[in-house]
Specification:
alpha+beta, 5 strands, 5-stranded mixed β-sheet
């Protein structure tokens, strides 16, 4: 049995940027709170039937996303994590999170 080689689709083949260094990731600047387009939805796929609330669409630095995730976890008094540019909060906390986000200035937040 042979192993297939997986290719990273994010790799750059050619760059005209003179300051470019291969393997170096650049982080986008975090958008202001009132410009963030967040989506709050419920999910149970691949989680053993347990419900989680997902917050998607955050645009900005990973550190700011981690900070927001920590604030939401402590507000909901439950566990969770930040993975693949989305915040995962255990349980069905859609209404709670939506109200908190709107109060915190994330006015363009939608519930799916």
């Amino acid at each position: 049995m042979t192993k297939k080689k997986l290719y990273n689709m994010d790799s750059i083949v050619y760059s005209t940027d003179t300051n470019f260094k291969p393997g170096e990731k650049t982080e986008d600047e975090t958008l202001p709170v009132n410009e963030q387009l967040l989506k709050v939805r419920l999910d149970a796929k691949h989680r053993g039937g347990k419900l989680v609330t997902l917050i998607e669409g955050f645009s900005g630095k990973e550190a700011d996303l981690e900070k927001l995730g920590k604030q939401l976890k402590s507000f909901c008094a439950t566990g969770g994590s930040v993975k693949n540019s989305e915040i995962i909060i255990q349980g069905d906390n859609r209404e709670k999170i939506l109200q908190w986000l709107i109060k915190a200035g994330y006015r363009k937040t939608k519930r799916l």
